[in-house]
Design brief:
79 residues; alpha+beta; SH3 type barrels; six-stranded antiparallel sheet
Length: 79
């Protein structure tokens, strides 16, 4: 099932299928290791959903909700 990263719940695990956006935002995500095929685990979510913390490529990464809306995921595991 394909789902946006911003819609992940804590404990969800998936693989990045596509990174949308353009220009600086897309380049910044790529520089942080957010690329197709990377495995992502949702670690924490702020009470209002912004920011979120994920584990990707062995490190914790904090993303804003607007950035997470650009990342399409293939859901592998749910709680």
């Amino acid at each position: 099932m394909t789902i946006l990263l911003c819609d992940f719940k804590v404990g969800y695990k998936g693989v990045i299928k596509n990174v949308n956006g353009e220009g600086r935002v897309r380049r910044r995500l790529f520089d942080m290791g957010v690329t197709n095929g990377a495995e992502v685990v949702m670690v924490k979510k702020a009470p209002l959903g912004d920011p979120i913390e994920v584990t990707i490529r062995g490190y914790e990464l904090t993303l804003r909700k607007d950035e997470a809306k650009l990342i399409e995921m293939e859901l592998e595991e749910e709680l």
